[in-house]
Design a protein that fits this description.
The protein has 7 helices and 7 strands, in the order αααβββαβαβαβαβ. The chain is α/β, with parallel strands linked by helices. The strands form 2 sheets. Strands 4-3-5-6-7 form a 5-stranded mixed beta sheet.
């Protein structure tokens, strides 16, 4: 929102800063950011205070799991600490939200690796800029036999999958991809659990079996 829109609130720089901060959230445009800011300040200042405190605490305390790269509070997350899971399976996803989408299906009992991004040449993120060395180390230090590529079926997700397939197969590991139960252009975070579960169960192998 332009500064001129706040002529009626001359001198309220904190309000301008709040709207600008809210605009950085995904799916929040100028008008939505203004409505949220006004609501928090006018109707629910207690919630605004709690939100601010929660954000500060999360930024200060949430870290990346040393094994899977997911968000966690300790050095190793609860999933990686769960010895009941199948050590032969590693599912690679783009974001923590995608991991949560797969966990919601209650059909996958292997481990994960979260890329925290995806290849996007238009945004200057080339496949080579993904943290492949960390994932490679994770594979070297584990009992993984099959890597399930659960990147999204977007152009960026497919480019990421192609890049990872080439690198992983050089390590003589089986590589599979989610089946097309997830629609082309779809993202796991917004796909219903039953569809994600079907895609996971019907995953397809990429290339021939490693010798």
């Amino acid at each position: 929102m332009s500064r001129s829109a706040f002529d009626a609130f001359d001198g309220l720089d904190p309000l301008v800063d709040l709207v600008q901060a809210l605009k950085r959230l995904p799916g929040v445009g100028p008008k939505s950011a203004q409505r949220l800011a006004f609501h928090l300040l006018q109707s629910d200042r207690q919630a605004a205070t709690a939100l601010g405190e929660s954000l500060l605490k999360a930024v200060a305390e949430i870290r990346h799991c040393s094994m899977c790269n997911n968000f966690c509070h300790a050095d190793v997350c609860s999933i990686c600490s769960d010895t009941r899971r199948n050590p032969g399976l590693l599912c690679v996803v783009e974001t923590p939200a995608d991991l949560a989408a797969i966990e919601a299906t209650q059909t996958y009992r292997g481990y994960y690796y979260v890329l925290m991004g995806r290849a996007s040449p238009l945004d200057g993120v080339r496949p080579e800029s993904l943290d492949w060395p960390k994932l490679s180390q994770r594979l070297d230090d584990s009992e993984v036999k099959e890597v399930i590529l659960a990147t999204n079926f977007t152009n960026e997700g497919e480019a990421t999958a192609v890049f990872l397939t080439d690198r992983i197969r050089r390590m003589a590991l089986k590589v599979s991809r989610l089946a097309r139960g997830v629609p082309i252009g779809g993202e796991l975070e917004y796909t219903d659990p039953s569809t994600v579960a079907r895609a996971l169960l019907d995953r397809r192998q990429l290339g021939s079996d490693p010798e």
